[in-house]
Amino acid sequence: MLFQFRSKRLAYLAGSLALTLVVSACAGGNQGTNGGAESPAAGGTEGGNLSGSIAVDGSSTVFPVSEAMAEEFMAANSGVQVTVGSSGTGGGFEKFCRGETQVSNASRPIEQDEAQACQDAGIEFVELPIAQDALTIVVNPQNDWAECLTVEELSTMWAPDAQGTISRWNQVNPEFPDQPLTLYGPGTDSGTFDYFTDEINGEEGASRGDYTASEDDNVIVQGVSNDPNALGYFGFAYYEENQDALKAVQIDGGEGCVAPSAETVLDSTYTPLSRPLFIYISQNAIEERPEVQAFAEFYLSQDNASLVEEVGYIPLSDELYQAALARVQNDVTGSVFGAGATDYSLADFAEQGAGGGASPSPQ
Amino acid sequence: MTAHEPSLLGNNLPDPQEKRFDLNLSGRYRLDKIFAIATLIATISGVVVLLLLLFDILSDGLQFLNWNFLSSYPSRSPERAGILSPLVGTVWLLVLTALITFPLGVGAGIFLEEFSSPDSWYAKLVEININNLAAVPSIIYGLLGLQVFVRILVGITGGRSVLAGALTLSLLVLPIVIVSTREALRAVSSSLRQGGLALGATRWQVVREHVFPLALPGILTGMILALSRAIGETAPLITLGALTFIAFLPPLSPAGLQSSFTALPIQIYNWVSRPQVDFHNLAASGIIVLMVVLLLMNTTAILLRNRFQKTRI
Predict the structure, then answer these.
(1) Is A304 left (phi over 0), alpha (psi -120 to 50) or beta?
(2) Pairing of strands A212-214, A125-134
(3) What confidence tens digit (pLDDT) does each residue in A163-212 have?
(4) How far is A332 from A360, CA to CA, in rounded Å?
(5) Cα–chain-centroid distance for residue B76?
(6) B258–A307: do the CB atoms touch at under 8 Å?
(7) How far is CA B258 from the centre of its chain?
(8) Do B244 and A63 touch (CB under 8 A)?
(9) pLDDT tens-place string over residues A28-50
(10) From the list A19, A27, A86, which residue is nearest B244 (CB)?
């Protein structure tokens, strides 16, 4: 009796074990068929002769641009499958330097340790600016005093020292009224936060903590449009879509007040808050896979600059597009932003980009 | 003793006690009513919030909800954008998660409840672990899935694939399935087991013929709860590396298991955080689709449950 019971119990265990094995065997079997399933796609191209798949991942800020490019690129080359992820600039580089993606979206230049990780893994990259964004300081439309703010005034508001002490507008500038100052901004995970703190407070990540932080910029839009004493910052597209509910503040970077707009970003007068957006492409992929090269050229084509505008960003100047294209064609690897660079001006690209060999090492 | 009449007994009670009893009667009925009203308010407030949310979502999202929306891929322009690839991704995830969790979760529940002695050290160990796992935040499962299913088991899952996603979600909801399976089995009267064993049936026969069919409705309820949780999870999928923009579908073959994927909550989150208002409305439409998928899934499970209940009687 006891023995019989035991054997049943064993049978049950064996049964479930067998089931697990069958499941894993099925899954293992797929590996072989995977290659076979992909190969017919190589012959079955309708538009264009390219085939293959391109994995793009990285910054969620750059995501809309890559999504638009991928959509149009696939419409022109139906044999190529482009996928775009949005795991953040840092997360994107991590995958990129493991060789899991071919293109990495970034809302800031690659950092030293990230470049080192890529180098250790034997992955060389081509750094390409693809669009610009104007970080826009917004206030409520009822706010009639803050028309123009200097970088110093912004720093007074947002510096880590301001925490708990700067809480009224007249503390920022004695000419401003004695009204409470309510601040809204992106959360600390955001590339926008990194860039703003770097430019305004002089150190990436250095910011007061007692403001309303949100990872969703629409929350900042809501907050500022409902509070006459509020001030917030985010990418230009969010201001553009909500112009009737918000007022953009002009920025004085030392050479007079400049309002954020496509023109002032393009002629580099909106400083220091205009920021470049990048993609990083694996150089091996460009060399070995014609579809990756074609995608890079498609991305940098002046004909497609309208896609950048459509999703709310500011395209590069024609010279910069040409300089970036030359970087792809001449295999210029490495980052133009050396260690500890805080000046993210794109001027270097125009000079170094076409130069060909002049590629600083990622050290 | 038998000669005593109830009335006599009553008369023997001291007066003050009887008075207090009478007085309390109306008071207790009042308390009863107050409690009933309080529970009613609790019920209604939940329903009201749900209705408000539904109204908000429906008024924003219904205008975009059409066949085009369901059959197109995501796009940069709100007019052309659809939800096909996230919808298919979510269905893949749900089916796979159900296929993985049902045998594993129910099997583990049956073993712990019916076959193992509750005093054995391994049963205790497993029980403590399951209860702990049920409280682990979902992002931790995402990190675990990234390391184990995406990186270590890359040969089986093919990296950031739909299979890796389903396995991660399965881990996430397994504790719920196991705990609810055990609850359902515990609710089956033990006299049934004893009767079966007394008649010479083996444990396997008792479980298969009597205990499991009776517990099945409860187990299916647990599965509904588990899958409802899985369908709304975003964090572990994003950690795992689920993509956001995909304009093709996984092939309906075993190779599809290894293809990259996206899911409804990811697409909804992406649309909500866009600056353009049209995308916010698209997100509302996406939420409606997500709710419909959830309702369909739950309806299937409830229909199955009712069928099993009928065949038992």
Answers:
(1) alpha
(2) unpaired
(3) 989 999 999 999 999 999 999 999 887 888 888 998 899 888 889 999 99
(4) 9
(5) 34
(6) no
(7) 26
(8) yes
(9) 333 333 333 333 333 333 456 78
(10) A86
Using CB atoms, pick whichever of A9, A235, A312 lies closest to residue B115.
A9
B77/A237 Cβ within 8 A: no
Please indicate whether, in this complex, the C-beta atoms of A311 and B76 are within 8 angstroms of each other. yes
Comparing CB atoms, the residue among B76, B158, B163 nearest residue A310 is B76
Pairing outcome for strands A182-186 and A103-106? unpaired
* Helix/strand/coil for B111: helix
Domains of chain A from N-terminus onward:
52-132+275-353 (3.40.190.10), 136-259 (3.40.190.10)
Mean pLDDT of B6-26: 58
Closest-CA residue in chain A for B278? A241
Q: A8 to chain B nearest CA, in Å?
A: 7
Output the pTM of the full model: 0.79
Rounded Cα distance between B122 and B126, Å, is 6
CB B262 within 8 A of CB B89: yes
**Chain A: nearest CA to B241, how far in angstroms?**
7
Record the tokens describing residue B146, joined without a space.
């990234």
B58 exposed, middle or buried (CB, 10 Å; 0-12, 13-18, 19+)?
A: middle
The partner residue sitting opposite A26, judged by closest CB among B203, B244, B254, is B254
Q: Are strands A182-186 and A212-214 parallel, antiparallel or unpaired?
A: parallel
Q: Which chain B positions have a beta carbon within 8 Å of A36's beta carbon?
A: 255
Q: Which residue in A288, A271, A354 sits closest to A319, CA to CA?
A: A354
Tell me A180's DSSP state: B
Count the Cβ atoms, other than its own, within 10 Å of residue A331: 14
Could you give the maximum distance between any two Cα atoms of chain A, in Å?
A: 95
Cα B145 from Cα A54, distance rounded (Å): 23
How distant is the Cα of B38 from the closest Cα of chain A, in angstroms? 35
Mean pLDDT for A215-235 is: 91
CA distance B85 to chain A (A): 11
**Whats the size of chain B, residue-wise?**
313
Residue A74 host element (H or E): helix A63-76
SS3 content of chain A, % helix, strand, coil (to 5): 45, 20, 35
Q: Which amino acid is at A299?
A: Y
Backbone angles phi, psi at A231, to 5 degrees: -140, 140
A39-67 core/surface letters (b: 16 or more CB in 10 A; e: else): eebeeeeeeeebbbbbbbbbbbbbbbbbb
Cα separation of B287 and B47, whole Å?
Answer: 18
- Span A322-356, pLDDT tens digits: 888 888 888 888 887 765 555 666 766 666 544 44
Contact B199, B129 (CB under 8 A): no
d(CA A271, CA B283): 35
Whose tokens are 């860039």? That residue is: A195
Nearest CA to A192 among A107, A92, A104? A107
Asked if the Cβ–Cβ distance from A66 to B245 is below 8 Å, we say yes
Specify burial of residue A314 (Cβ count, 10 A radius: 0-12, 13-18, 19+). buried
Alpha helices, DSSP H, located in B62-82 = 67-71
Question: Which value, to the nearest 10 degrees, does the dihedral of the CA atoms of residues A345, A349, A350, A354 take?
Answer: 170
Sequence-distant (≥ 6) Cβ neighbours of residue A177 within 8 angstroms: A145, A169, A170
For residue A166, the tally of other CB atoms under 10 A from its CB is: 18
> In the structure encoding, which two tokens stand for residue B210, read together?
């009597």
Residue A113 backbone dihedrals phi, psi, to 5 degrees: -70, -30
Token output for A190: 């955001």
Residue among A357, A292, A358, A302 nearest A325 (CA): A302
